[in-house]
Amino acid sequence: MTKLEINPGACGFFVTVIATKVGPKGANITVQTDCEQVNEMAPMITYLTVQDILGFPFGEDIVYQAAKRVIRHTSCPVPCGIIKAAEAELGLAVKRDVLIHFIQ
Fold it and tell me: For residues 38 and 60, what is the distance between their CA atoms, to the nearest angstrom?
């Protein structure tokens, strides 16, 4: 199981993503948040395969296509975080934090 937290910034809607490997090439995805938009997207991406996350040009995978339908803020980091969780759970990426940091 891979679990990560996403702090999206100004909106304040923290997101928890849990990816659980199912077979050699798939993962169940669970998303927990108070964000209405992310909650609307979550049922569209409950299971991801290696092909779902690596088999498309950037932004054309099922996660970003689902986000495109319901998330109105284009800089939302949640779709990226969901893909990162799935990649890590499927052994396609190392579990390393990602950070966007404003320098004041």
Answer: 18
